[in-house]
Amino acid sequence: MPRRGNISKRDVNPDAKYNSKLVSKFINSLM
After folding, report:
1. pTM of whole model > 0.70?
2. Distance from CA of residue 14 to its chain's centroid?
3. In the prediction, which pLDDT does 1 show?
4. What confidence score (pLDDT) does residue 2 get?
5. In angstroms, rounded to a whole number, what is the distance separating the alpha carbons of residues 5 and 16?
6. What is the DSSP string of 1-31?
7. Cα(21)–Cα(11) distance, rounded to whole angstroms?
8. How far apart are CA 31 and CA 26, in angstroms?
9. What are the angstrom distances between the C-alpha of 5 and each of 1, 11, 12, 19, 30?
10. Which of 6, 10, 21, 23 could make a disulfide contact with 15, Cβ separation 3.0–4.6 Å?
11. Are 5 and 13 in contact (CB under 8 A)?
12. pLDDT digit string (tens) for 1-31?
């Protein structure tokens, strides 16, 4: 939780193999 100011959400890069943001989110949650 930041002490001051707002932090923007990080932009998720699409997966290299499937070119899908959903796949990259899933893989990041597994790691």
Report:
1. no
2. 9
3. 65
4. 67
5. 33
6. --SSS--PPPPPPPPTTT--HHHHHHHHHH-
7. 10
8. 9
9. 10, 18, 22, 33, 30
10. 23
11. no
12. 667 888 788 788 888 888 888 888 888 888 8
